[in-house]
């Protein structure tokens, strides 16, 4: 029997926990209040898409947005993890996109309904290759960027996060047990905008990784 390899965590079928409004500049651009506690939502493992496969625009949206985010891959599970030990639970990182049907999210927000169809559809979580934690010694200070058809749309630094990675791991694990292979999306900086069929998205963590995805309409 071969041991499972964390570097293909997206094949493990574990959960994807997303943090929203973790950058003040992004909360402001969508006219949301700055949160006093992390805003959490989930994506299913079927949301994963890897380079080489397209991001598919759901048929029900006419305003699909990109959100570039640092993803944290859990290496050691736990419940009620103290902040002081939190980084021992991290196996590594991945650059992620939190693809969002903004029109559907707006409708859900105004009706007080959950964001599931806005956030959790197939291909709503493009991910880069796995980045072992040694390659990002200070995850609280890395630059993220995203370009659409070679135009810079998002550029931010994880130092702008409202809630730090150790805080998020500790907070989430108080309510949702973290398991090896889980992924935490840590929120997006400002600059989110719409993408169309045939667009090319390129994103990167400065000096660490780049990835590219094409946008296609669903048949
Ligand atoms: O949809 C939103 O604005 C919330 C979110 O995911 C983020 O801030 O990254
Ligand atoms: Mg997001």
TrEMBL record:
Record keywords, A-Z: Metal-binding
Q: Might you give the EC number(s) for this enzyme?
A: 3.7.1.5, 4.1.1.112, 5.3.2.2
Q: Which residues form the Fumarylacetoacetase-like C-terminal domain?
A: 15-215
Xref: Gene3D superfamilies: Fumarylacetoacetase-like, C-terminal domain
Can you quote a single GO CC term? Answer: mitochondrion
Q: Which Pfam families would you find in this protein's record? A: FAA_hydrolase
Gene Ontology MF terms in the entry: acetylpyruvate hydrolase activity; acylpyruvate hydrolase activity; metal ion binding; oxaloacetate decarboxylase activity; oxaloacetate tautomerase activity
Catalyses which reaction? oxaloacetate = enol-oxaloacetate; a 3-acylpyruvate + H2O = a carboxylate + pyruvate + H(+); oxaloacetate + H(+) = pyruvate + CO2; 3-fumarylpyruvate + H2O = fumarate + pyruvate + H(+)
Which PANTHER family does this one have? ACYLPYRUVASE (PTHR11820), ACYLPYRUVASE FAHD1, MITOCHONDRIAL (PTHR11820:SF7)
Query: Per the similarity annotation, which family is this?
Result: Belongs to the FAH family.
Official protein name in the record = Oxaloacetate tautomerase FAHD1, mitochondrial
Q: Per the UniProt entry, what species is this protein from, by scientific name?
A: Lates japonicus (Japanese lates)
């Amino acid at each position: 029997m071969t041991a499972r390899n964390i570097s293909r965590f997206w094949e493990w079928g574990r959960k994807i926990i997303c943090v929203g409004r973790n950058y003040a500049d992004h909360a402001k651009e969508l006219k949301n209040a700055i949160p006093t506690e992390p805003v959490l939502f989930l994506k299913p493992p079927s949301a994963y898409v890897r380079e080489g496969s397209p991001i598919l625009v759901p048929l029900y949206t006419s305003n699909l947005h990109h959100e570039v985010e640092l993803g944290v891959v859990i290496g050691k599970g736990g419940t009620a993890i103290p902040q002081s030990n939190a980084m021992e639970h991290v196996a590594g990182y991945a650059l992620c996109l939190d693809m969002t049907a903004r029109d559907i999210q707006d409708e859900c927000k105004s009706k007080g309904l959950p964001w599931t169809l806005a956030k959790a559809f197939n291909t709503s979580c493009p991910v880069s290759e796995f980045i072992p934690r040694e390659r990002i010694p200070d995850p609280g200070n890395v630059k993220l960027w995203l370009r659409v058809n070679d135009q810079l749309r998002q550029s931010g630094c994880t130092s702008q996060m409202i809630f730090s990675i150790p805080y998020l791991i500790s907070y989430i694990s108080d309510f949702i047990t973290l398991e090896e292979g889980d992924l935490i999306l840590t929120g997006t900086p400002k600059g989110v905008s719409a993408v169309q069929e045939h667009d090319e998205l390129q994103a990167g963590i400065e000096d660490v990784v780049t990835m590219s995805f094409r946008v296609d309409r669903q048949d």
